[in-house]
């Protein structure tokens, strides 16, 4: 039995939902509201499940683990279904590198914690926070767009089916649109996003389709 502790708008949790859907896994969701003022991830109960007090967390037969990219590796290694990584070792390296630009370089700078810190410690207003957010997306997307040109003319980045690169990209594209980042320079990324959004596993994983989603 797989239980995913997630927040509907968390891009890290979004990644895991996509991966589980691509594998055709049977899982249940446990919503954790991480918004400031609610902070369900900071409760003693959740701390016992995940000492880092972040989402997502995954529970498998009573065992708990966190960190979305590590969870993706477990999903790939443990669950049947379509491969999330290419068969060729070099292509696997490239796919992981693409995903890590998002997970390791873009996302940590734009997570709720640093954005709140900018407001609290430096007095950043909404406009300043939005500029910060867009800056790191654009820097990362420039590199990703160049890397994605190697697969121009195909629907997906490192093979004939979506995998870890798309699993990381699509939530970040949603974040970019939410913060009104200009995506005109990133036509290849937009094309890959459109190809993925047409697939049922991605549709079911989308934030707005989660049972705990709140109106914008």
From TrEMBL:
Entry EC number(s): 5.2.1.2
Keywords noted in UniProt: Isomerase
Entry superkingdom: Bacteria
SUPFAM superfamilies: GST C-terminal domain-like, Thioredoxin-like
GO biological process, one term: glutathione metabolic process
Domain GST N-terminal residues, every copy: 1-83
A Pfam cross-reference name: GST_C_2
Xref: Gene3D superfamilies: 1.20.1050.10, Glutaredoxin
Signal peptide bounds: none
GO molecular function, one term: maleylacetoacetate isomerase activity
CC per GO annotation: cytoplasm
Keyword match Isomerase: yes
Keyword Isomerase: yes
InterPro entries attached to this UniProt entry: Glutathione-S-Trfase_C-like, Glutathione-S-Trfase_C_sf, Glutathione_S-Trfase, Glutathione_S-Trfase_N, GST_Zeta, GST_Zeta_C, GST_Zeta_N, Thioredoxin-like_sf
Domain (GST C-terminal): residue spans on this chain: 88-215
Top-tier EC class: isomerase
Stated family: Belongs to the GST superfamily. Zeta family.
Protein name: Maleylacetoacetate isomerase
Primary gene name: maiA
């Amino acid at each position: 039995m797989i239980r995913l502790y997630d927040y509907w708008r968390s891009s890290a949790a979004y990644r895991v939902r996509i991966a589980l859907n691509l594998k055709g896994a049977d899982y249940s969701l446990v919503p954790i509201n991480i918004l400031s003022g609610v902070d369900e991830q900071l409760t003693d109960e959740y701390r016992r499940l995940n000492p880092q007090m972040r989402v997502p967390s995954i529970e498998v037969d009573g065992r708990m683990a966190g960190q979305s990219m590590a969870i993706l590796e477990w999903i790939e290694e443990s669950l049947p279904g379509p491969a999330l990584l290419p068969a060729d070792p070099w292509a696997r390296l490239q796919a992981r590198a693409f995903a890590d630009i998002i997970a390791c370089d873009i996302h940590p700078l734009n997570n709720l914690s640093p954005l709140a810190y900018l407001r609290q410690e430096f007095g950043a207003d909404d406009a300043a926070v939005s500029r910060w957010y867009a800056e790191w997306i654009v820097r990362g997307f420039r590199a990703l767009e160049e890397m994605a040109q190697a697969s121009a003319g195909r629907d997906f980045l490192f093979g004939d089916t979506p995998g870890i690169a798309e699993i990381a990209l699509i939530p970040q594209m949603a974040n970019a649109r939410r913060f009104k980042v200009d995506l005109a320079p990133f036509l290849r990324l937009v094309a890959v996003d459109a190809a993925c959004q047409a697939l049922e596993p991605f549709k079911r994983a989308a934030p707005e389709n989660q049972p705990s989603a709140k109106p914008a």
